[in-house]
């Protein structure tokens, strides 16, 4: 009996018997072939296995990440012992003892013949054989004899008119399938020069690529390989990134803060307090605004009468509090009230920085806030210096973690999740090369969108509206609205739906 062997990494996770009929495959437990996938690289109802014309055919059922053969996404694939199918994190291959593994008979449409031979040539790394003449089948034995002969007789196509255009589009799809590689991701075998290639990628900072392409396959073949283990350990301890660039100056905010300071100097304390409170609502941790708020609260309005005020009694001695207990150094001529107000403002800044680290987990912003506190209040103010160093390290660690998550999402073509991970990684550690990664993802989306456009056009010409709809929807998801194919896909989708 035919069997479908399903692997995750190098582990066999499922053997599914194929006994004819239709089998659904995906991460929904109601499927006949249920595969658990917490990462959701596999759709709930990813594909169906159908038995048609004596052959098992795996058909993509509008899955999120598609079905891939030899590095190219395909709408369906004839199951053969030497054909590896990739779906999310899983790889599937038919058991070599499976029946129905001969080439499809001449009863299959011309487009199916071309796609089948492209698939077989990609799997065997051989040129695509010329398509046979489409004649009615005589018998199963005749079909087997014809297939065993290797199609030695050169035959021409008998399809004219629209079929000629269809064959042209199919040829493009087949050539792309062969050009993109003869083995799916994850099946590359080690070569004698793997070490030089891996070292080159590691030296350039591309550890994820080095692990996926060379190091992990080498360790799979030889778990005790000292060179591969050393390179993997090196990738696990990346070099620290350069210090983050200083944040840009907000000129509008600086003008507002200067206006508040001028109002305080002019003894317009109520107006200054109102303005600085408004600023702090938008930026609660702004150090200069907090200091101005303390000054505005402590200042007093000078008398407006023409008579000179009576001489004020000598101000009492200010009780200074040490920085280790949250205190500050005294300012000459400062009253106890002004001193206490400055202490409260500094403590507000400290609490805001703690919140950035412990609650918002925005470690980069927390490190910046603690660093400013150390500059203004001294290195011994509470534990600000220790918290600053801890926040810096956590920002680097969190940025690296998010950056790696972005690369993993990009490798499984979950592009939106990858872009979001790179954006958050940049917030934590602006020195990470996130712009280059996002640009690479956008290029991959454009390439996938162009391939989806070609497949959609082919299905549309064949009047296979259901399949064309699937590909054109992918075009709208992948290409920008300014792309020519985006507009064509949108128009044809509207036509198909009506």
Index terms:
single chain, 498 residues, alpha+beta, five-stranded mixed β-sheet, 11 strands, 51% helix, 10% strand
Quickly describe the structure:
The protein has helices spanning 110-124, 140-148, 162-179, 194-203, 207-221, 226-236, 251-265, 269-282, 287-298, 336-358, 363-377, 384-411, 415-428, 434-461, 465-478, 484-497; strands spanning 2-8, 11-18, 22-26, 33-34, 47-52, 55-60, 67-69, 72-74, 76-78, 85-87, 90-94. The protein has 498 residues and is α+β, with helices and mostly antiparallel strands. Helix 7 runs parallel beside helix 9 and helix 10 (336-358) packs antiparallel against helix 11.
* Helix run count: 16
The largest sheet has its strands arranged as 2-1-11-10-7-8
Regions with little confidence, pLDDT below 50 for 5+ residues: 98-118, 120-192, 301-305
Radius of gyration: 34 Å
Beta content comes to: 5-15%
Query: Could you tell me the mean pLDDT?
Result: 77
Structural class: alpha+beta
- What would you call the shape? elongated
Distance between the first and last residues' Cα? 44 Å
How many extended strands?
11
């Amino acid at each position: 009996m035919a069997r479908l062997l399903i692997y995750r990494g190098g582990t066999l996770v499922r053997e599914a018997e194929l006994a004819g009929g239709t089998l659904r495959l995906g991460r929904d437990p109601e499927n006949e072939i249920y595969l658990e996938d917490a990462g959701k690289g596999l759709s709930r109802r990813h594909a169906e296995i159908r038995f048609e014309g004596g052959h098992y055919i795996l058909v993509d059922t509008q899955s999120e990440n598609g079905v891939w053969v030899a590095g190219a996404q395909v709408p369906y694939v004839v199951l053969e012992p030497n054909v590896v199918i990739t779906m999310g994190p899983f790889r599937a291959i038919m058991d070599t003892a499976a029946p129905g593994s001969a080439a499809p008979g001449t009863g299959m449409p011309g487009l199916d013949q071309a796609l089948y031979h492209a698939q077989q040539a990609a799997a065997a790394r051989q040129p695509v054989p010329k398509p046979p003449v489409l004649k009615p089948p005589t018998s199963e034995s005749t079909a087997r004899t014809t297939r065993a002969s290797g199609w030695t007789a050169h035959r021409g196509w008998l399809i004219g008119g629209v079929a000629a255009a269809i064959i042209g589009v199919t040829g493009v799809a087949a050539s792309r399938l062969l050009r993109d590689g003869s083995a799916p991701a994850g099946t590359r075998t080690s070569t004698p020069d793997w070490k030089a290639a891996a070292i080159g990628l590691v030296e350039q900072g591309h550890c994820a690529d080095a692990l996926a392409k060379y190091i992990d396959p080498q360790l799979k073949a030889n778990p005790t390989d000292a060179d591969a283990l050393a390179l993997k350990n090196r990738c696990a301890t990346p070099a620290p990134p350069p210090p983050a660039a200083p944040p840009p100056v907000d000129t509008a905010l600086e003008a507002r803060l200067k206006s508040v300071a001028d109002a305080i100097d002019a003894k317009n304390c109520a107006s200054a307090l109102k303005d600085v409170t408004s600023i702090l609502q938008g930026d609660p941790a702004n150090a200069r605004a907090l200091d101005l708020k303390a000054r505005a609260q402590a200042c007093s309005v000078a008398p407006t009468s023409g008579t000179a005020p009576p001489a004020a009694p000598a101000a009492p001695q200010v009780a200074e509090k040490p920085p280790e207990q949250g205190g500050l150094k005294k300012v000459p001529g400062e009253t106890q009230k002004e001193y206490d107000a400055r202490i409260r403002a500094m403590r507000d800044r400290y609490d805001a920085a703690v919140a950035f680290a412990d609650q918002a987990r925005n470690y980069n912003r927390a490190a910046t806030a603690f660093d400013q506190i150390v500059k203004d209040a001294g290195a011994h103010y509470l534990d600000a210096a220790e918290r600053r160093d801890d926040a810096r390290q956590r920002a680097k660690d969190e940025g690296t973690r998010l950056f790696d998550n972005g690369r993993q999402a990009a490798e499984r073509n979950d592009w939106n999740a990858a872009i979001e991970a790179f954006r958050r990684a940049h917030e934590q550690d602006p020195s990470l090369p996130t712009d280059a990664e996002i640009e690479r993802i956008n290029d991959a989306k454009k390439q996938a969108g162009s391939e989806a456009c070609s497949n959609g056009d082919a299905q549309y010409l064949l009047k296979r509206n259901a399949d064309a709809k699937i590909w054109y929807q992918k075009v709208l998801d992948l290409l920008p609205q300014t792309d020519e194919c985006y507009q064509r896909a949108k128009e044809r989708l509207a036509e198909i739906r009506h």
